[in-house]
Automatic annotation (TrEMBL):
This is RND transporter. It comes from the Bacteria. The lineage of its organism: Bacteria, Pseudomonadati, Pseudomonadota, Alphaproteobacteria, Rhodobacterales.
Length: 74
């Protein structure tokens, strides 16, 4: 986890806002897949992959925020 702690939080924010929300129109892909998951319609492999692919930056950002600024140079 020391490598993870050395990565700046801004990197995770940028990844979450770009890859995590792409494509932006008509609605973010991750939002569409979360709605499908909650409706019980997430069955196809490509949909599950999309949820993981577009959700990963958000998960990493959440982990970074929970862990705080450990290992950041002052």
């Amino acid at each position: 986890m020391s490598f993870f702690d050395k990565i700046p939080t801004s990197t995770f924010v940028i990844a979450a806002l770009t890859l995590g929300l792409a494509p932006f129109f008509p609605e973010p892909h991750v939002w569409e897949k979360i709605k499908m998951l909650l409706a019980g319609e997430l069955h196809r492999s490509i949909d599950i992959f999309d949820l993981v692919f577009h959700g990963l930056p958000w998960g990493l950002l959440a982990l970074k925020l929970v862990r705080g600024d450990r290992g950041q140079a002052v």
